[in-house]
Write a structure and sequence with these properties.
The protein has helices at residues 26-62, 67-99, 111-128, 149-166, 213-218, 225-235, 266-269; strands at 6-12, 18-24, 108-110, 134-138, 143-146, 172-179, 185-191, 239-244, 250-256, 261-263. The protein is α+β, with helices and mostly antiparallel strands. The longest helix is centred in the first third of the chain and has 37 residues, at 26-62. One of its GO terms (biological process) is cellular response to phosphate starvation.
Length: 271
């Protein structure tokens, strides 16, 4: 067992007696350490692009540069600004998820158009990174899911865009959704990327945990994607599974409970 941390106080208690009060503060301390780590991580993530931006501003102010070089600098500045925007957007998403109550299954959304959006996004991420990938999408026909559509879309598309980002040129990404016999829905993203060593897998959903920091940054990662996915999936009563081995690619799967899944009868699909 891990050592516990106790906070102990002594109080005078009647004639010649003392009362000893001991409180277990292990959890409080752990939460404080996590909070401090988080603030340090956020500060670091913001400082890096800011340093680069400030450097470019100074260069542009002090040097007379030819137009094309100036253009290149401005382009790199725009990239750093974009990076900070993405980071702030992800941070806001996380804090919104943490603060809001569990969604009811009142809102039902067809799965196929959500997957269509994921596919479009995947293609544009691949294009932006200059990669040619074999992309397959196999949606479950007629499936509807209950919950917050925008959150579920962001969970699905985070997994898909990770697969695209980490799979090298020429590889393949297969996205599938199917309703399992018991009525649960399984959404899977399989890639032929580098794979992930076992010791990293349990930590991937921690905020800012990355196996390879520079690889993540190069492809526009904030280190928050899987933390967002985990939150969304948990809020919807589902489960995130990760299967991966170095050199053998990765499979990320989201399972949603039957209560959040409906299938339209085939006749209704025609309309
Ligand atoms: P990031 O923005 O860094 O991608 P994520 O939270 O989405 O942050 O993922 C955390 C880490 O998990 C990544 O930095 C990467 O090391 C690893 N990872 C995620 N998806 C994959 C994948 N499909 N293949 C290999 N590694 C992955």
């Amino acid at each position: 067992a891990r050592p516990r941390k106790l906070s102990v106080r002594l109080h005078p208690y009647g004639e010649g007696r003392l009362l000893l009060l001991a409180r277990d503060v292990t959890a409080v301390e752990q939460a404080e350490v996590m909070r401090r780590d988080f603030v340090a991580n956020v500060s670091h993530e913001i400082r890096t692009p800011l340093t680069v931006l400030a450097g470019f501003v100074e260069t542009l102010q002090t040097l007379e540069l030819p137009a094309d070089e100036r253009g290149r600098y401005l382009q790199m500045m725009a990239q750093q600004a974009q990076r900070m925007q993405t980071l702030v957007a992800d941070l806001l998403t996380l804090s919104r998820l943490e603060g809001s109550p569990l969604p009811g299954a009142g809102e039902w959304t067809a799965l196929a158009p959500l997957l269509g959006q994921c596919e479009q996004e995947a293609r544009s991420v691949a294009l932006a990174l200059g990669k040619t990938l074999d992309l397959h999408f196999e949606p479950a026909p007629g499936a509807r899911i209950g919950g917050v559509a925008s959150e579920l879309l962001s969970a699905f598309s985070n997994l898909v865009s990770n697969a695209v980002r980490y799979t090298p040129d020429g590889g393949s990404v297969t996205v599938g959704a199917r309703v399992l016999p018991g009525g649960r829905l399984e959404f899977t993203v399989r890639d032929t990327g580098p794979g992930i060593a076992a010791e990293h897998i349990p930590r991937l959903t921690e905020r800012f945990y990355r196996v390879d920091r520079s690889r993540s940054r190069e492809t526009g990662g904030t280190g928050l994607g899987l933390a967002i996915v985990k939150h969304v999936v948990q809020r919807h009563g589902g489960e995130l599974r990760i299967e991966s081995r170095p050199g053998a690619g990765s499979t990320f799967a989201i399972e949603l409970p039957a209560a959040r899944v409906r299938t339209e009868p085939a006749a209704a699909l025609q309309g």
